[in-house]
Every structure is written in C-alpha cells, then in structure tokens.
Amino acid sequence: MAEITVVGSINMDIVALTNRYPGHGETLFGHSVKTLCGGKGANQATACARLGKSVNMIGSIGLDSYGKEIEKNFKENQIETSFLKLVEDESTGCAIITVDATAENTMLVVKGANDSLNEHDVQKAFSQIETSKILLVQMEIPEAAVIRAMMEAKRKGMFIILDPAPAEGVTKQALLYADIITPNLQETKQLTGIDVTSIKTAIEAGKYFDQYLGVKNSVIKMADKGALLYENGKSIFIEAIPVKAVDTVGAGDSYAGALACALADGESLESAARFAAIVAALKVSKLGAQSGLPTMDQINEYCAEHNLTYYGLQTRQLR
Questions:
Q1: Is 42 assigned to a binding site?
Q2: Annotation-wise, does 252 bind a ligand?
C-alpha cells in the first residue's frame, strides 16, 4: 500500500504565456498556450510520485476527455487511481492560467467534478487504506470531504499536512486536525491578519497560528525570500535556493509534496523543510505544475553541481 495519501482537487490547466496581463476589457497577444494536468491535489500526488514515493490519490474527475487524460497521467506516474470518483454529470475541473514575464501567475478555476467528492467517498477509500504514513490535503474540494479525510487519518495515526489554500475555504476545525500547515504570504495574512514582510513578522504569524488557532507547527512560505518553520514555539528561517524562475504555478504543491516525502522517510521538520526548498526551486525553474516537477535523479544532480546537501544535514553551501 502507498506511503502517502493525497485528498484534493484534480484539474486540467490551460496555461497561456504573455509579457503582461491584459487590463479589464483589453486584448493582448500571448506567446503560447499549453494544456497541462494540474489541480493542487493532483500536483502534490505527482510531486510525491516523482520523488519515488508510492501514492494514493483520492479525488473526483469527469467522464470526459480531460478526465481520461488525467487518469492516464496518474497511471504513467504510478499513482494509485482506484480511489478516483468518476462523475457523469460534471466536467473535470479546469484552471485557466496566465503566466507573465516575471513568472507570476493569475488563475481562474472552475471546480467542476471536484465539488462532487463527499464524505462517503472519502470514508470508503480510507476503509481500504492501512499503511499510509502521511496525509496531504488542501481546501479546493468540499470542506466536509477534507474534514472526513483528516478525521480518518487521525484514527490511523497518519501525520497530516494541510496546505490552507485557498485561505477563504479554511475553517478552525480543519486547522485543529492538522499536524502542520504550509501557508504562503497571502494565506497567512488571510488567516492571521499579519502582513508578513520579514522574518520578525513571520515569527509573529507562527506564534499566532500556535496561540490563537491551535496549530503548533507551520511553514510560512515567503516566496523567493525563503520560509519560516515554526515548530512547537521555536522558529528557524530557511533560505530559498536562488534560481531563475520560469513558472511559479505549482511551487507550493511541490513544496508540500517534498515535505511529505521527507517526513515519510523519518526526517525532522527542519530537514524536511530544507529538502522542500530545493524541490520547489527546481520546480519554478521549469514550466508546468506537474511537468516541471523534479525527480530524485534531477535533485541529486543539481545538488552535486551546486554543492548542496539534504536529509539529516543542514542544506547549505559546503565550504
């Protein structure tokens, strides 16, 4: 059985590249358009699979051409698809994404079949899952399904990673079941009211999650500035790995997936977060939320070239 279980959204991404975003009512010519498999849940599952882990994917897709392509992609990545819900009367979720010259993106998501996943589907899947160590969840599917997944995971002694995205969908109940959360700057501000602009304000946000929302562990992702790991009252700043960004779509998903893989290997939160920084850096240097995800061979090659280490040792430039 799989080491990691992911419960979450599954989409087809339609990605357009352009120098800048069009203004309201404006028409611009872009450079290119690609159709790529995406969705936060699917991205995280694929990230784990690319890193060599066995993965269960629990989610919902439509009985359409996008759904067939996504299911094929899962199988090619050796992701367990027996827990996928196939929906007749809803189309597969779709995200229309624009990426500008700075590699930043805007995204319009139509949930489609993702909204069909319910508590019964999740409970039925978990009744057949026995050996997973880690649960990865996000908030792009119905809250009831997310909460049920977290409750089932708790019963089975799994470590729960919640990516609180989008922040508008996160409730205090979901936060209480999480062993660690991985918000970005926007999600941190939405949940805490704190505008994270420095290490000091990131620590304040970590304390807020702990003292007021009951989340003892958090990784506050500060984009290219790095990340702040807050663990049981202690904080550690982890610098970002400098790379030329091409596409930031899926960067947070690659981070969450890498974190799950390292924790499944028995690494500490700090060691896991340092590994995740490397994985996320390699992801943003390539196009595609899933096609840009690195493999372990690519990570090892990159680390050898740049004198980086991970797992058990602090990720750092070796002297």
A1: yes
A2: yes
DSSP string, 75-139: HHTTEE-TTEEEESSSPPEEEEEEE-TTS-EEEEEE-GGGGG--HHHHHHHHTT--S--EEEE-S
Please, what are the domains in the chain? Answer: 4-21+32-113+124-305 (3.40.1190.20)
Say whether 64 is catalytic. no
**Any known ligand binding at 39?**
yes
pLDDT tens by residue, 216-275? 999 999 988 999 999 999 999 999 998 888 888 789 999 999 999 999 999 999 999 999
**Which residue among 100, 253, 265, 297 is the active-site one?**
253
Q: What is the DSSP string of 125-182?
A: HHTT--S--EEEE-SSS-HHHHHHHHHHHHHTT-EEEE---SGGG--HHHHHH-SEE-
